[in-house]
């Protein structure tokens, strides 16, 4: 969950640098500016992905900019045998 921003910008999207490892499976923006993102991680592959949340002022032209960056390390399930 991303709290509403104190400036005039609003959350616009969440992106993953490696969707095969960490995929954005859900995204919702509430009327009060709170954003909800759901992430799913691969259980059979290991690695790292950078997840970024972008924000933009609604009345300004141009692309949204990265406002939050999180590194996610994925560790595969242990093999049973």
Lateral strand order in the biggest sheet: 1-4-5
**End-to-end separation:** 38 Å
- Following the backbone from N to C, one meets helices and strands in this order, namely EEEEE
Helix content: under 10%
- Rounded mean pLDDT score: 90
- Strand residues, percent: over 45%
Give the overall form.
elongated
Radius of gyration: 15 Å
Number of beta-strand segments: 5
Biggest pleated-sheet summary: 3 strands, antiparallel
Structural class: mainly beta
Stretches with pLDDT under 50, minimum 5 residues:
none
**With helices defined by DSSP (H or I, 4 residues minimum), what is the helix count?**
0
Structure, described:
It is a single chain. The protein has 81 residues and is mainly β. The protein has no helices and five strands. A hairpin with a 5-residue loop joins strand 2 and strand 3. The mean pLDDT is 90.
List keywords for this structure.
single chain; 0% helix; mainly beta; elongated; two-stranded antiparallel sheet
Compose a concise summary of this entry.
With 81 residues, the protein is mostly beta strands. Helices cover 0% and strands 52% of the residues.
SSE diagram, text form:
Layout: E1 10-16, E2 22-29, E3 35-41, E4 47-56, E5 65-74
Antiparallel strand pairs: 1-4, 2-3, 4-5
